[in-house]
Amino acid sequence: MSQTLAPQPAQAPPPPVKAGLGLAALTALVVGSMIGSGIFALPSQMAGSAAPGPLVIGWIITGVGMLMLAFVFQSLATRKPGVDGGVYGYARAGFGDYVGFTAAFGYWVSAWVGNVAYLVLLFSTLGYFVDAFAGGATAPAIIGASIVLWIVHALTLRGIKTAAAVNVVVTIAKVVPILVFVAIAAVGFKAGLFTADIWGHATQIDGVPLGDTMSQVKNMMLVTVWVFIGIEGASVYSRRAARRENVGRATLLGFAGVLALLLLVTLLSYGLMAQAKLAGVPDPSMAGVLEQQVGSWGAAFISIGLAISLLGALIAWVLLCVEILRLPALEGVLPTALARENAHGAPANALWLTNVCVQAMLLWTLANESTYLNLILLATSLILLPYLWSAAYQVLLAVRGETYESSHGRARDLVVGVVALVYAGWLVYAGGWQYLLVAAVFYLAGTVLFVWARRERKLPVFTTAEWVAFAVVTVTAVAAIALLATGNLAVL
């Protein structure tokens, strides 16, 4: 099967990029793409799902699963230095051009839809200071979001390294408010509140019991599905790394730092307020919790921090958007026009296509009042399948023994790959079937670009196995369209 799906031999590869991104810039891409808005809403979301005991169990399971994915990206970056583009490159190398295309296209759509969500939430947050922005989907808010979008667009047109350098600064700036929250929460932490009902047997949220321990763990893990997206940020930029080994290091450093912040924010919050009360704090709940500790300046401080965080996440994801289009275009999986760079080395066509889509979706949210949560759920569902392909590729390499001539590390990598694959599969399941159906619609629409690219290079469009994959996508997309038309499926 894998031999049938092997990608077509690539034409002469482009010359390597001489000046690359260093460890700090790559790590900032990981942290910047992972820390967006999720961490600022975690205190109430977690309190509504699980008591402290089940919460710790859930974080251990989640941490191990995501650590295995981080190890997958680290291992593949080292063992397959010739494969660029992270989730796209691994899907293509392991399972063929069309699967690689779906990984790249799904990742791209996920990234720009996520940017719409960030812009909506950014101006919803600024509504704390300016009433006209309240809710994030008002006309003044959409106008403001559009201005911010095109400022970031202009910045990125000045070059990837310039935008990446700005991202480092913004990433540092948005971590500071989180560290301040952690410091204040540590001082105000009350062990008695934390242990009052540590397993959640007596606690009720809006009159509803939390359930048994395993139910709480499952509910808590459904929340964590959304907070680790972006762990692959450095691997997507592998081609622009100054040193290849820094890709794996940046992935692990970014993951470890973000996980530590997530644990501290959630666990310390349980020692500041009773769980039922904490669950009722409106988002961004970190602001409400800090306000209860230090007064109104705390809410304003966290709101500013969230605004900076969202701006940083926007910059990081714009960078990932254009890179995930550029590399497939260089390799004949997307039209070559998307790989063209301007005088500053920025893929201008890919950037224009991305931000025109963001602008169109912003106008859609104004007309349809799409919620931030719906946008995030759609964006996340589109990015989970590429994770699964990456884990499957590591399992494939280990089973074949490819790159393991001395057998050193093969058994370890097989175990890591299998655990990561199971966890990625669970993430896809937890994301919800309705979003997978809508993802198929995007894949089917995007296949036009794949066909264009293959015709452009005078290559066969599909192999036999890829025709089967395309048929599955088509049938699923048709079913989704039928359900959408009858009102039985709605995601926006």
Describe this structure in words.
There is one protein chain. This protein has 19 helices and two strands. By secondary structure, it is an all-alpha fold. The chain has one domain: Amino acid/polyamine transporter I (Up-down Bundle), CATH 1.20.1740.10. It has a two-stranded antiparallel ribbon with strand order 1-2. α3 packs across α9 and α18 crosses α19. The two termini are 37 Å apart. The N terminus is likely disordered. Probable amino-acid or metabolite transport protein.
Task: Describe the structure in brief.
The protein has 492 residues and is mostly helical.
Name a few traits of the molecule:
492 residues, mainly alpha, Amino acid/polyamine transporter I, two-stranded antiparallel sheet, 2 strands, 71% helix, 1% strand, globular, disordered N terminus
Which helices and strands occur, and which strands form pairs?
Blueprint: H1 23-34, H2 38-47, H3 52-79, H4 87-95, H5 97-126, H6 139-157, H7 160-188, H8 191-195, E1 204-205, E2 208-209, H9 213-224, H10 233-236, H11 245-269, H12 275-279, H13 285-294, H14 296-330, H15 348-368, H16 372-400, H17 410-431, H18 433-456, H19 464-485
Antiparallel strand pairs: 1-2
Subcellular location: Cell membrane
InterPro entries: AA/rel_permease1, Amino_acid_antiprt, APC_superfamily, Arg/Orn_antiprt_ArcD
GO molecular function, one term: arginine:ornithine antiporter activity
